[in-house]
Amino acid sequence: MMFKNSARLLCANFDKVWKLLVYHILCFALCFGLLAIFYDFFVSYIVSAWENAALSGVFANGTFYGYSVADVLHGLTHAVWGFFAGIFTANVGIGIYFCLIVFYLLPFLLNIGKYVVDEMMYGFMASAQKQSFTGTFLRTLGRSTQFASIKTLFAIPFNALIVASMFGLSVIQNDIFAYILPLAFAIIPALLFAFKQTFNAGWAPAMIVYDVNVFKAFGIGQRAILRRGARVFSTAFVICLLAIVLSLILGVYAIIIILPIILPFSHIFEMTAFFSSQGMRFYVDLDTILTPKKLEEVDKIEKAKFIL
Predict the structure, then answer these.
(1) 1: CB partners within 8 A, 6+ apart
(2) Does 66 have pLDDT greater than 60?
């Protein structure tokens, strides 16, 4: 039901997909502009790493275009490793600058956009209210930057674990495993992404709904989401797996279509999971109000004594 209700909310608020897409384009443009200061430096090492990994032509036509998943994964890992080794060997300062832009500033800006979309969704789900993206962005800038700065730091260990798992898959050299690798490459990152989202899903919604600071919101959000933890985890896993499988089947060009939809859908899913876990009524479209189970029906019997 969470997946279905999130899909209905996405369709009723599809304008947010385009607004968030424009915001993301501006974020990427800003980061690209900051990296363009050392454009020649970065491009030379990207080209060198790509050629050394023998990946030229891999995205020329089709999904993996005649390459096996194992070959592509091994090649991409080798290319990324070669790129970072090259820039840090040549200039440590520029290497650190690159990492700060790509691994902190960009996620920080994207998390601000996430908070804005969650705030807009709260207005719709609570009272069928439509809000402008720019107005909401300016009105919540102080709170969204507070959330984004902490959330970005919190996500680094999870992201490192996901990257490490993909690197671990890439170093396995086995003819039999090469046939299993596409399945493992889809399932393992999807499981890790779902685990990460389950522990983060209620954070921004709790901060918005209860108007508390970012640290208190984390505890409230976790308690709410874990009431239906298994359901939230399984739905998050399906969303992540669907995005990965579609990208693998349809190829790199599909990512251009999938990402602009999957990111707002993921944000809407988190709001849906929070409202459902809290037993809060909400609009799924302009004509329908959904009434989830009350907290007394969701919580276990040993927690009933805490209900006022």
Answers:
(1) 276
(2) no
Q: Which residue has the higher pLDDT, 61 or 19?
A: 19
What is the tens place of the pLDDT at every residue in 238-281?
A: 999 888 887 777 666 666 777 788 889 999 999 999 999 888 89
Instruction: Count the Cβ atoms, other than its own, within 10 Å of residue 32.
Output: 12
Mean pLDDT of 104-122: 96
pTM over 0.85: yes
Compare 22 and 182 and report the one with higher pLDDT: 22
SS3 labels along the chain? CHHHHHHHHHHHCCHHHHHHHHHHHHHHHHHHHHHHHHHHHHHHHHHHHHHHCCCCCCCCCCCCCCCCHHHHHHHHHHHHHHHHHHHHHHCHHHHHHHHHHHHHHHHHHHHHHHHHHHHHHHHHHHHCCCCCHHHHHHHCHHHHHHHHHHHHHHHHHHHHHHHHHHHHHHCCCCCCHHHHHHHHHHHHHHHHHHHHHHHHCCHHHHHHHCCCCHHHHHHHHHHHHHHHHHHHHHHHHHHHHHHHHHHHHHCHHHHHHHHHHHHHHHHHHHHHHHHHHHCCCEEEECCEEECCCCHHHHCCHHHHHHCC
CA distance 37 to 35: 5
Residue 261 one-letter amino acid: I
